[in-house]
Backbone:
């Protein structure tokens, strides 16, 4: 695999349509993008689709990347937006299915409960409770929490991905931790 001396050079090659540069970006970032998407959409298949859509969108729109943030931050932003849009669409479809099922117009299919691979470890029950508690956080709190805890992004990177300020990120993370502590205190 090639290694590029600078992000600027890599982006220039991407803009020229260099397939090796695109392959490098996909290989370098696919697991992190996948993990972020998985935590939001909670479906392995949907997360895999979002990873592919993220890289296709990045490749098609690399000309519009202004390099004010890092390439990884831009990719996260694309993936998070796609994941949130997917989640909103799923919720809308679920509401429609509920309404239709009331009138027996179509069967109501609930998405099966998500089981994250980490839940298969020794702490399966606790992991499941934590994931469910994270899932119940308000959208912005959940996004900030996942980007910080799962993806280990800095506050600055989270602010760039979420297009907000660092104090806002700090506040979201503080409230997310409070909400999680409260939810888990009741369950454990």
Residues:
């Amino acid at each position: 695999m090639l290694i590029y001396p600078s992000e600027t050079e890599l982006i220039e090659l991407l803009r020229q349509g260099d397939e090796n540069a695109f392959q490098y970006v996909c290989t370098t970032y696919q697991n992190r993008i996948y993990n972020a998407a998985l935590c939001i959409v909670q479906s392995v298949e949907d997360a895999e689709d979002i990873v592919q859509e993220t890289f296709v969108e990045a490749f098609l729109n690399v000309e519009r990347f202004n390099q004010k943030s890092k390439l990884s931050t831009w990719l996260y932003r694309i993936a998070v937006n796609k994941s949130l849009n997917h989640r909103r669409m799923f919720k809308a479809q679920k509401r429609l299915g509920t309404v239709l099922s009331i009138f027996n117009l179509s069967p109501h299919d609930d998405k099966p409960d998500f089981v994250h691979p980490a839940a298969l470890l020794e702490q399966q029950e606790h992991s499941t409770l934590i994931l469910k508690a994270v899932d119940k956080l308000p959208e912005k709190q959940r996004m900030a929490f996942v980007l910080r805890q799962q993806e280990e992004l800095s506050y600055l990177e989270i602010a760039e991905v979420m297009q907000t300020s660092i104090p806002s990120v700090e506040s979201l993370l503080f409230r997310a931790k409070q909400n999680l502590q409260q939810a888990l205190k009741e369950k454990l």
